[in-house]
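Support reply, case 0932

Customer input (verbatim):
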Amino acid sequence: MNADSVARYLQQHPEFFEQHPDLLAVINVPNPHSGRAISLQERQLALLREKHRAIEIKLAEMVRRAQENDAIGDKLQTWTRQLLLAQDAQALAGAVIDGLKAVFSVPQAALRLWGVREAHQAMPEAAPVEVEAIRLANGMSRPYCGPRAHPQVARWLPDPPNARSMALLALRKGADPDAFGLIVLGSADIERFTSDMGTAYLERIAETSSAALSRLVE
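Our regenerated output:
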């Protein structure tokens, strides 16, 4: 018999050590940490402790993420409430951007809308937008997150050189493939918006902003 045969036999006959309990006390295996020989029972106990520690670490990570998600959910609710309380177009546009900066602690944020109704065309957010920016927004199927890019929209931020990472959120009416606006978020922290980060909450922010601001465009 070879080692694989022994391993298979023990897996197929879990009652083996019940029938030969004396072996548990005399079989010694190396301790992976100290190098000294320990009994099979001690080795099993050490394995159980290691598994227990691994489970504790995973549980702590799950609790941490749940707490973070709860905190983000509370912030999203606070920001949404501010949008609902906005009285006019100018207040609404300000609630979107000022709320993102204040509630979500985003250092820089900017908003541009196009196709704005005549009554709202004097808003700063309705300033002329380059064709490249509109094409960029139309081509986005999900928020962009990553290093500073797209200079045609990065310059909308108050301090573009200090926006080392950015998030771009296209605004749409429902399933309309064409966007009517774009939100730009910037941070000096290169790790704030990364290409591998989850975008579920950013997508919710984009959907809520789109629903609120759609009344301002044709």
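We compared this against your earlier run and they match. Two observations from our side: The mean pLDDT is 89. The helical segments are 3-12, 16-19, 22-26, 40-85, 89-103, 131-138, 151-154, 200-213. Please reopen the case if you see a mismatch on your end.
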